[in-house]
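Before relying on records like the one below, remember that each one covers exactly one chain. Contacts with other chains, cofactors or solvent are not represented anywhere in the record.
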Amino acid sequence: MYDSTSQPAPLHQLPQHPPSLSLTPTTISWTGRTTAGTPPPLTTMTSQDTNTNGNGNTLKLYYWYTSFYSQRVLMALYEKRVPFKTQIVSLLAEEQYEPWFLKLNPRAEVPVLTDGVKVIPDSIRIIEYLEDNFSNGQFGQLTPKEKGSEESKNIQRFRDLLETLPIPALTFGTAIHPELVDNPKPPFTPLLLKRMKETAKTRHVIIREHAEKTPEFQEALMEKAAAAEHGSLNLNKTREEMDEVLQEFDSVLQKVEDELSSHTEGKSSWWLCGELFSIADIDLAILLNRLNCLGYERRFWAEEKRPLLEAYWYKIQKRDSFKRATYFSANAMRLTKLRGTLKQSKTLLASLTAAMAIAVISYIVYRRVLKS
């Protein structure tokens, strides 16, 4: 419900004629600050679309507010100061399974970035795409210029550690075993955690239902449903499995603490791997935010358990890109959930109307038969 669990998917071309939507998702532009406007419909993107990013194409991010992987991409975009537009894909309303979005990512996972007619799924690939294409003097840089330097190798080492952590398993496993934490914070309210617990147990069923409704994407969704039921995407963790997941996080965070402790002799102001604020710092920042929101800070760093990691957490919360990337509006989430409810209500109303019409016709026919 709240995170993409995708494997890296190939970059492909945007369909030339995406379908129009009966209910328009929210669209926001960002050119240095967030602005709100009238939600426009989803339109076909062509090379003639205007943009100010310097590459001649339009960057548009399809994301959900509280998706871990969406937040990671958002923070990279804000750090790099790349102008972009956004379109909300409500996971609460299950919009990721709608045909218009499945054309962008047949695995029904956010985030997805489009750049003109190019479509880039998967947060890791998106950030690497941004770094490869938007790293001149106009934009921020998240990797060292010297690719073979020790700093560059260290950044990649921590990226490998942080980017392979099982975030969905941790998130949904916590919903199943709330006794593991003592102070979860919004958006992980008791009501939401209860819903996530139910989703973790029935996710494969939900995916199969959507697969049957969309034959064009059935193969990809059925494959995902199988993995969600018995494979790598199974989020219905036992307590023993959750203990193993938490040990994995403990191990990686201890490596982070050890790295931070090596920053001596004038290096106290360094970020994770050096003076440069890097992709590894984005990975760590969004990870700490997820752990904090779930209520794991006491287990992993608070109360002097890992003092340097705790200091890093306080430091990163002051960074503007972090504030923007992790901000969410509870009211906006409620509105998108309402939009999904309205869609379901329309379907239900149509079914009831059809049933009533059949009943009326049957009654009329019945009366005529009686009179004959």
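The two ends are 58 Å apart (CA to CA).
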